[in-house]
């Protein structure tokens, strides 16, 4: 069992010295302290959300600047997953855009030019007026 003066002082900064024994039981010293996540805090018995957020804030505030720039391996995995999700979403949106442009070109070829109108018609995106030739056209699939 490690008793870290650094961890004790860090917890004292946010008034949560009552958790020092939990950190000691789990051998959490300065080298591990900066890598703790919310899940880790729950696992060592810090169940109160407010207390966990306070501890995470102290970790962020005390973390040396050079360590703050280096993502943790779990952060990298999460970022890669999020990038992959964004790429998939962008691909779907691009495919939808291409399909819409293709369909619009087809409709423009098939439709007669609209009559001159001296007013402005405001429509909700995706909702066409009753008289519109596009009223019953589905662009999404």
What can you see in these coordinates?
With 141 residues, this protein is mostly helical. It has 2 domains: 5-68, DNA polymerase, domain 1 (Orthogonal Bundle), CATH 1.10.150; 71-108. Helices cover 57% and strands 0% of the residues. It contains 7 helices and no strands. The longest helix is centred in the middle third of the chain and has 38 residues, at 73-110. The N and C termini lie far apart (61 Å).
Concise summary:
The chain is mainly α and 141 residues long. It has 2 domains: 5-68, Transcription Factor, Ets-1 (DNA polymerase, domain 1); 71-108. The protein has helices at residues 5-13, 20-25, 30-33, 38-43, 49-62, 65-68, 73-110.
What portion of the residues fall into strands of 2 or more residues? under 5%
Q: How far is the first residue's CA from the last residue's CA? A: 61 Å
CATH structural architecture of the largest domain: Orthogonal Bundle
Rg is 29 Å
Helix content: 55-70%
- Flag low-confidence runs: none
Number of domains: 2
Shape verdict: rod-shaped
Mind summarizing the main beta sheet? none
CATH topology of the largest domain: DNA polymerase, domain 1
Instruction: Classify the secondary structure makeup into a structural class.
Output: mainly alpha
H/E series: HHHHHHH
**In the CATH hierarchy, what is the superfamily of the largest domain?**
Transcription Factor, Ets-1
Mean pLDDT: 78
Number of helices: 7
Please report the first level of CATH classification, the CATH class of the largest domain.
Mainly Alpha
Query: Got a strand count?
Result: 0
Region (Disordered): 107-127
Organism: Starmerella bacillaris (Yeast)
Domain SAM: 1-65
Protein name: SAM domain-containing protein
């Amino acid at each position: 069992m490690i008793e870290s003066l650094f961890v004790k002082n860090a917890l004292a900064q946010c008034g949560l010295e009552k958790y020092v024994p939990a950190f000691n039981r789990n051998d959490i010293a300065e080298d591990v302290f900066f890598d703790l996540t919310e899940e880790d805090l729950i696992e060592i018995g810090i169940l109160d959300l407010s207390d966990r957020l306070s501890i995470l804030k102290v970790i962020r505030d005390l973390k040396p600047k050079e360590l703050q720039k280096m993502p943790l391996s779990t952060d990298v995995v999460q970022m890669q997953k999020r990038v992959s999700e964004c790429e998939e979403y962008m691909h779907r949106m691009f495919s939808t855009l291409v399909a819409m442009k293709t369909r619009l070109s087809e409709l423009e070829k098939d439709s007669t030019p609209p009559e001159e109108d001296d007013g402005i018609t405001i429509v909700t995106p995706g909702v066409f007026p009753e008289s519109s030739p596009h009223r019953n056209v589905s662009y999404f699939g």
